[in-house]
Design brief:
The structure is a single chain. The chain is built from 13 helices and four strands. The protein has a domain of 221 residues. α5 runs antiparallel to α10. With 340 residues, it is mostly helical. It starts with a helix and ends with a helix. It is globular. It is 70% helix and 4% strand.
Length: 340
């Protein structure tokens, strides 16, 4: 218990120290706190998308990029409707659901055929799907100036959401106090979705899913179709990822296509792992706490690193180091536990 408390205390203390360093260098701590809160809401639903597969025993779903791509497809159809504001955001989510269900079903069937190697296969399945869709984005011709390249062929790499639904949730019910701007409405919506998911996991279906993950042999003995529930959680994970990319885009300000989101799944996995989850155990607290801590570390470490080691490429190096370092540590730690 003492070791558990110590590990959980190190990161908050580290964040406090970084705030003090910002103060020493006369940088606005409130500005970076605002960015941290906004980015926490921006990524929370995408991180939540990893949780269902951990519950069912599939493990960490590094292939949630398949859900992100489904969300991008829904975004294209939503923008083509000509709507703006919250109506457009809802339309993008609604259009993405059918695609995420179809892709999630096929993806779930694939993972059921490679039991024991889900982590590896999910990674490459996500990469392959992104590559295939990148070819489709190039040849896709849409009659919309915001979506297509200036020469009229293919989808843009980045589609600007300014004037469409950029920050419609981020600014909703936001509270300002000097340089600090708290996206109250945005965070409440994200927390509400997490809360609803936690309620779903306490229903009969949710309890059955947990049983399949904790003890699949016992579940089979009870007459439960384990593969069916594994596939169900993959579909739910893909749907949440599609919704999550919409939340991400409205805060970031762009829909990004091609290979831009290829590594976002690793970021989401690192977030919940840094919150205390493993490849076998997870809860909603890990998502909320991990998302806040992870985004705080990334947001605060970047300006400090630029001050100490001026380098234009340093922010991305830090992001990659933290993301992959956390995942590597968590997987090695989980491997040791399994061997024991």
């Amino acid at each position: 218990m003492k070791k558990f408390i110590l590990v959980r205390s190190i990161l908050p203390v580290f964040i406090i120290v970084m705030f003090l360093i910002l103060k020493v260098y006369n940088l606005s701590a409130m500005h970076y706190l605002t960015l941290t809160l906004q980015r926490t809401g921006m990524l929370m639903i995408a991180m939540l998308a990893i949780v269902p597969t951990i519950y069912s025993g599939v493990g960490i779903n590094f292939g949630i990029t398949i859900g992100f791509i489904s969300g991008l497809i829904g975004g294209i159809f939503g923008i083509l409707t000509g709507l703006t504001g919250i109506a457009l955001m809802i339309a993008c989510i609604v259009f993405s659901i059918p695609f995420s269900v179809i892709t999630g079903y096929g993806y779930g069937k694939l993972l059921n055929r490679v039991k024991g190697s889900e982590t590896l296969i999910s990674t490459y399945a996500g990469f392959a799907f992104v590559s295939v869709m990148s070819m489709l984005w190039i040849i896709l011709n849409v009659n919309n100036e915001k979506l297509r390249f200036s020469n009229g062929n293919g989808i843009r790499i980045s589609v600007n959401l300014e004037g469409l639904f950029k920050d419609v949730l981020t600014n909703w019910l936001s509270v300002s106090a000097g340089e600090l701007k708290i996206p109250v409405g945005f965070l409440l919506i994200c927390l509400a979705i997490c809360f609803l998911f936690s309620i779903f996991m306490k229903t009969k279906i949710g309890i059955t899913v947990k049983m399949c993950g904790y003890n699949p042999n016992y579940a089979k003995a009870k007459g439960i179709n384990v593969d069916r529930y594994r596939t169900l959680t993959v579909i739910v994970s893909t749907m949440l990822a599609a919704v999550g990319i919409c939340f991400y885009a409205q805060s970031f300000g762009y829909y990004q296509f091609y290979a831009v989101y290829m590594n976002l799944g690793f970021t989401c996995a690192a977030g919940i792992l840094i919150g205390g989850a493993t490849d076998k155990r997870v809860n909603i607290y890990n998502v909320i706490y991990g998302c806040a801590i992870y985004e705080a570390i990334l947001t605060l470490s970047t300006p400090i690193a630029n001050l100490l080691l001026p380098n234009g490429a340093l922010p991305e190096i830090i992001r990659t180091l933290i993301t992959n370092g956390v995942i590597l540590y968590a997987l090695v730690k989980g491997g040791k536990k399994n061997n024991e």
